[in-house]
From TrEMBL, chain A:
InterPro entries: Glutathione-S-Trfase_C-like (IPR010987), Glutathione-S-Trfase_C_sf (IPR036282), Glutathione_S-Trfase (IPR040079), Glutathione_S-Trfase_N (IPR004045), GST_C (IPR004046), GST_Phi_C (IPR034347), Thioredoxin-like_sf (IPR036249). Residues 87-214 form the GST C-terminal domain. Pfam families: GST_C (PF00043), GST_N (PF02798). This is glutathione transferase. It comes from Rhynchospora breviuscula. GO terms for biological process: glutathione metabolic process; response to herbicide. Belongs to the GST superfamily. Phi family. CDD domains: GST_C_Phi, GST_N_Phi. The keyword Transferase applies. Keywords: Transferase.
UniProtKB/TrEMBL annotation, chain B:
Keywords: Transferase. One of its GO terms (cellular component) is cytoplasm. It catalyses: RX + glutathione = an S-substituted glutathione + a halide anion + H(+). Residues 2-83 form the GST N-terminal domain. GO terms for biological process: glutathione metabolic process; response to herbicide. It comes from Rhynchospora breviuscula. Gene3D superfamilies: 1.20.1050.10, Glutaredoxin. Its EC number is 2.5.1.18. Residues 91-218 form the GST C-terminal domain. PROSITE patterns: GST_CTER, GST_NTER. This is glutathione transferase. Belongs to the GST superfamily. Phi family. Pfam families: GST_C, GST_N. GO terms for molecular function: glutathione binding; glutathione transferase activity.
């Protein structure tokens, strides 16, 4: 039975998992969920994720939610080198930067991308104050990333890992906004970003995302 | 083997997450206090350990890093076999279930419970501030919705990830312990399986030891 991944390609959390599925060459079926029609709040969906959020993965009897969990599961199932489970130090560094993305990067970049890209879709008005406040915080976070990436090629070390891939979805969304040029002031961050864009799996996911804002 | 150094405070919620793991596996470590009131967490020395200026941070030989859940996993992996298996990394679906509920703790439970703890305990006691009842009430409603899900889950399995105690359960301890010291502790009474789960794992020796360091220093 093929794995099923539930969610729309406009969800950065779904994209976090898509990237990993593509990196390992997994066979899967993508099942769209219409968030605008509140499909995720309906009983059929709550039966697979009681928190009513995307993405959800079904693999046989196993049902998983929370995107970082699903992504790790996929990478482990396919014995991917993007996790470095056999190295105590390398796996710790990966876990560290996955959590930094969740706790520092995501909260400062997502208000910017949400205001620019999601608000119009939801029929709301972009709040410039939110963008401006988030930009200040995001730049402080980028300073830390710049310092880190000046010392190592990728976030967890000189090897690409799950931690780097976790950053793709929202950074890509940022490049669709007028604030894409923020990265230009951080040359190591920019070089790191450009190297991620070269990855075949990333190119494929970018292609899959086309039209997701319509 | 060099001694593990944990930089943080015994009453700080994220430091507690790591302390519990260290105690569960019986690791030898030194807790190095970092004084938040004097801004020590923003000192150059501490920023070198955690560039975001937060606690805890861990030093183990040449390795220095931060983020309490990452540190927790590292400790549990390093001392695997010495204490209980709280990660189940030898089993694909069990480790995935541990990960699910650890993420749920971080992204669903924590965001609802921590503002209540902050407003009703930390703000008045540490900063002589006045609790914002609107924030408390809004988050109590969110917490109850989360606890509905936990009640359903814990009606089907003894612990969150399955019938085994794991890092997922452990991770809930510090904020819940403080929540039980707020006027809202009785919220848990409406969730009998959640309450039983809480009372079960907090009776573990490691938890009693770490809880003793959490008591407010008045």
């Amino acid at each position: 039975m093929v794995m099923k991944l539930y969610g729309p390609t406009l969800s950065p959390h779904l994209v976090r998992v898509l990237v990993c599925l593509e990196e390992v060459g997994a066979e899967y079926e993508l099942v769209p969920v219409n968030l605008l029609a509140d499909e995720h709040k309906k009983p059929e969906f709550l039966a697979i994720n009681p928190f009513g959020q995307v993405p959800v993965l079904e693999d046989g009897d196993l049902v998983l939610f929370e995107s970082r969990t699903i992504a790790r599961y996929v990478l482990r199932k396919y014995n991917s080198d993007l996790l470095k489970d056999s190295s105590l130090v390398d796996s710790a560094m990966i876990d560290l930067w996955v959590d930094v993305e969740a706790n520092q990067y995501f909260p400062t970049i997502s208000p910017i991308t949400f205001q620019c890209l999601m608000m119009p879709v939801l029929g709301g008005v972009t709040d410039q104050n939110v963008i401006d406040e988030s930009l200040v915080k995001f730049k402080k976070v980028l300073e830390v990333y710049e310092a880190r990436l000046s010392k190592s090629k990728y976030l967890a070390g000189d090897f690409v890992s799950f931690a780097d891939l976790c950053h793709f979805a929202l950074t890509f969304n940022l490049t669709l906004t007028p604030y894409a040029t923020v990265l230009d002031s951080y040359p190591h961050v920019k070089a790191w970003w450009e190297s991620l864009l070269e990855r075949p799996a990333i190119k494929k996911v970018i292609d899959m995302k086309k039209g997701s804002w319509n | 083997m060099s001694l593990i150094k944990l930089y943080g405070m015994p009453m700080a919620t994220c430091t507690v997450r790591v302390l519990l793991c260290l105690e569960e596996v019986g690791a030898k470590y030194e807790l190095v206090p970092i004084s938040m009131p004097t801004g020590e967490h923003k000192s150059p020395a501490h920023l070198a350990r955690n560039p975001f200026g937060q606690i805890p941070a861990l030093e183990d030989g040449d390795l220095t890093f931060f983020e309490s859940r990452a540190i927790a996993r590292y400790v549990l992996r390093k001392f695997k076999g010495q204490g209980p298996d709280l990660l189940k990394e030898g089993n694909l679906s069990e480790s995935a279930m541990v990960d699910v509920w650890l993420e749920v703790e971080a992204h669903q439970y924590n965001p609802a419970i921590s503002p209540i703890v902050y407003q009703s305990l930390i703000l008045p006691r540490m900063y002589a501030g006045t609790p914002d009842q609107t924030i408390i009430d809004t988050n109590l409603e969110k917490l109850k919705k989360v606890l509905d899900v936990y009640e359903a889950r814990l009606s089907k399995s003894k612990y969150l990830a399955g019938d085994f105690f794991s890092l997922a359960d452990l991770s809930h301890f510090s904020y819940t312990k403080y929540f039980m010291a707020t006027p809202y502790a009785s919220v848990f009474d409406s969730y009998p399986h959640v309450k039983a789960w809480w009372e079960d794992f907090t009776s573990r020796p490691a938890f009693k030891k770490v809880a003793a360091g959490m008591a407010p220093q008045q």
